[in-house]
Design brief:
CATH architecture: 3-Layer(aba) Sandwich
Strand content: 15-25%
Helix content: 25-40%
Radius of gyration: 16 Å
Order of helices and strands: HEHEHHEHEEEHEH
Strand order of the largest sheet: 3-2-1-6-4-7-5
Oligomer: single chain
CATH superfamily: SPOUT methyltransferase, trefoil knot domain
Number of strands: 7
CATH topology: Alpha/beta knot
């Protein structure tokens, strides 16, 4: 086995990425305070070719050196928008996407049991590193997804949770195939 060089990976350039078919998902960041987490979410969103990221409330916006440090250019490829209030972003997105919060809540669906509807588009809300997704936002969402955890900590880092969630969604909706790739 030989490790591949970057030029062998067949990655899209930014212009091609913007034109390429996207995974039918949007991320909504509800008052995420860490700029490194924001940058990491951009990088993960690029990896799974999602449609857009909504940055809400106190969530920092590009350009910022600390976002750029972890995003590694993904702020140029992934579409994003800002809303001062997360409910405003949800009002825009829910016209075309089912909104689900990623949180620990009564009646939450375990991630492994979440079954996206074929052909539907989704928006996933991820919350503040300590406070999580606000209750008002949870109340507005169609449902809540929870990533089961077995350790002593109360939660995963938001950027890790975004990666777990997006990989699971991508695998369930794209059948493990890159968007736009053959069979």
């Amino acid at each position: 086995m030989r490790k591949l060089k970057n030029e062998e990976l067949g990655r899209l350039d930014v212009a091609s990425f913007k034109e390429a078919r996207k995974t039918p998902a949007v991320l909504i960041l509800d008052n995420v305070r860490s700029l490194h987490n924001v940058g990491s979410v951009f990088r993960t969103a690029d990896a799974f070719r999602i449609e857009k990221i909504w940055l809400c409330g106190i969530t920092a916006r590009p350009p910022h050196k600390d976002i750029r440090k972890t995003a590694l250019g993904a702020t140029e490829s992934v579409s994003w928008d800002y809303a001062a209030d997360t409910l405003t972003a949800i009002a825009q997105v829910e016209k075309t996407h089912q909104c689900w919060a990623l949180e620990q809540a009564e009646g939450a669906v375990a991630l492994q049991d979440f079954r996206p509807e074929p052909g539907a588009s989704y928006a996933f809300v991820l919350g503040h590193e300590v406070k999580g997704v606000s209750q008002a936002v949870i109340d507005r969402c169609r449902g809540v997804i929870e990533i089961p955890q077995l350790g002593t900590k109360h939660s995963l880092n938001i950027s890790v949770a975004a990666g777990v969630l997006l990989w699971d969604f991508y695998a369930k909706t794209a059948g493990g195939q890159a968007p736009g790739s053959a069979g």
